[in-house]
Amino acid sequence: MQILNDLPEIAEHEIVFMRSPASQTDEAVSLLAQAMQKYFRV
After folding, report:
1. How would you label 19-36 residue by residue, b for 16+ Cβ within 10 Å and e otherwise?
2. Residues 22-37: pLDDT tens digits?
């Protein structure tokens, strides 16, 4: 993931991240969830 600091701001919006039970053991999905919690207001 790359954070781009020089982009214009966008209006506040909502994103829904739903995780299936089958993905609980998927390391890539876990890393994505961690990155979202770190870089976005959840």
Report:
1. eeeeeeeeeeeeeeeeee
2. 999 999 999 998 988 8
